[in-house]
Amino acid sequence: MAGWNLGLIIGIVVVLVVVALVVPIIVLAYKIGRQAPRINASLQEARVNTEPLAALETTMDHASTIVAGLRRGRERLGG
Fold first, then answer.
1. Domain around 13
2. Which superkingdom (predicted)?
3. Structural domains counted in the chain
């Protein structure tokens, strides 16, 4: 009978240890899940706000073309 009691106590201890390890993980996952919509909204806003940067290369190319044209014009006018 002592073996059964010892096995029961060990089993209960193992279950308690597993619960003690899993509960904080579940609580943290729940908190992250609650914050996820706000995080996603902020990321979407950042994406919208930074989309114009994709056109920066085109703007730089156009500006270089304009500056080169102005330089040629100045050289032709003797300046």
1. 2-76
2. Bacteria
3. 1
